[in-house]
Amino acid sequence: MPRILAVANRKGGVGKTTTTVNVATAMAAAGKKVLVIDLDPQGNASTSMGINKKGRMASSYDVLLGDKSLTEAVVWTEIPNFSLVPSSPDLAGAEVELVNVKNREFALKKALYKDAVNYDYILIDCPPSLSLVTINALVAADAVIVPLQCEFLALEGVTDLIRNINQIKKNFNPTLALHGVVLTMYDRRNNLSQMVEDDVRSFFGKKVYNTVIPRNVRISEAPSHGKPVLLYDFKCPGSQAYISLAGEVLKREKELIAC
Fold this sequence. Notes:
Shape: globular
Largest sheet: 8 strands, mixed
Mean pLDDT: 92
Number of strands: 8
Strand order of the largest sheet: 3-4-2-5-1-6-7-8
């Protein structure tokens, strides 16, 4: 089975999708076979990879509900070793549809167990809420990557998320680990980013990645071109930061697997 990493934060707009697609891109460039599962009804990961969602195609919704296999929903991207399961707006109603399903928290894990053997890594882009869809992602995952925007209000959300991760670990997935916290939208020109970084590193210690993702207009522009920033502008500070972050993630993977 591949290693499964959920990228999650209960707060929106923190760089969750951007982190998912760019870490996945860097992993694929390093020769890893990577699958991204877009579990957010907004479908930003799908858009960021240039997937046209207007035409009806199999999606993560169909996989979650058991109507399609993972293999049937996979879409290959222009990046070698990188494939994606696109999102669907129907995911917004998946929670209601799963309510009466037996072992509903394990629906995604069951689907991945059947069909995911051909990948080294699966990255799951979670919706910005603790819905049943997010719970499915956390139950299926080996570890969680938490993007954290460098502002004080974001700290409250991440504290709640860590509490939720511990609850999932206690009740459904005892091996679930916090992979790490990545600081995003970091602006070296103001003191706030530095203050937030100091607080986060003081609280989470070594769980915070050394790499910080800067505020960078090229990162913001890339999704409108249907590309990860690593393809849109490889030399920009945002791309170089995500390459560094992916290296840290892979290094930490070796340490977690060795434990």
